[in-house]
Amino acid sequence: MRVSKVAVVIAAASALVLAGCSSDSGDTASDGGDTTAADTANADYKICMVTHGDGGGFWSVAKAGAVKAGEDLGVTFDYQESNNDAEAQAQLIEADVSGGCDAIAVSAPNPDAIKDAMAKAAAAGIPLVTMNSGSQVFRDLGAFTHVGQDEIIAGREAGLKFKEAGATKVLCPIQEQNNIGLQERCDGAKETFGNVENLQLSAGLADLAKSQAEIQAKLESDPSIDGVFALNADIATAAALPAAQATGRDIMIGTVDLSGDAVQAIADGDIAFAIDQQQYAQGYMSVVLLYLNLLNGHELGGGLPMYTGPGFVVEDNASLVQELAANGTR
Fold first, then answer.
1. How far apart are CA 127 and CA 49, in angstroms?
2. In the chain, what is the straight-line distance between the N-terminal and C-terminal CA atoms, in Å?
3. pLDDT by residue (tens digit) across 113-162?
4. H helices within 74-167, ranges in order?
5. pTM for the full model?
6. How far apart are CA 170 and CA 40, in angstroms?
7. Contact at 8 Å (CB) between 291 and 73?
């Protein structure tokens, strides 16, 4: 029964990836059928996830994927997030080490801040994967694989989109400090597009009105900018788009990640594209990979990251993504 359940879950997880796809916990049991000894044994596994999430639209979808995997597998699952506080994230990881977690998935936007906590987990023999951010450093943190997208590759693909559209200069506003993944997105765009200027936002998501004002000021001071590569859907819709509209110029907007407003703006033709790293699959697959390690000693990935993106949402497929988003999976 347990092996059969694993096969079903892996098939479902593979379909998710191929198809394009605040502290809470969820304790799960069987899949709704007859409870067996194997199903009961699964509940002895406690799989934990600690992210830098902020409880917003992106992370709620990633969490939903992880919770669903826990339910499908019949394991105990616990989710914690630090709201972009690296020190708090490190403390949460250490609490999971002492709190009986059998395996832990961790996002790693600031690897230096969590490396000691990850080392404690590894020393305790706890299997680790990184997810969402950390594709370049997961081995250094003791993880056997990473689930997410390569941020440099995502940036390169965005740069090609701007290049194909005929843009000449792109602004890349960065909404978080010390997040290596955001910097990598800008760096990747610079590799394929060339003329990219970074802008560190002082308040980021905490004050979208201030972020809009800072982007607008930059656009007004440099009329040669005709593209904005937003690194977050809320920055795209609530800061970059109104800032561009306020200038009265035709400025191309692209973004990373999805929100209902971003997908609607794409459908309306106001935003050109969104890079979809398929965070539901990131959450789901991380739990599955850790479960298989606990169950059978598997270390999947072959020492390489397991990519969930980048995929692209553009005007042609925005309506389909809107339907899926209504189900909480995109």
1. 12
2. 30
3. 999 999 999 999 999 999 999 999 999 999 999 999 999 999 999 999 99
4. 86-98, 111-123, 151-165
5. 0.78
6. 54
7. yes
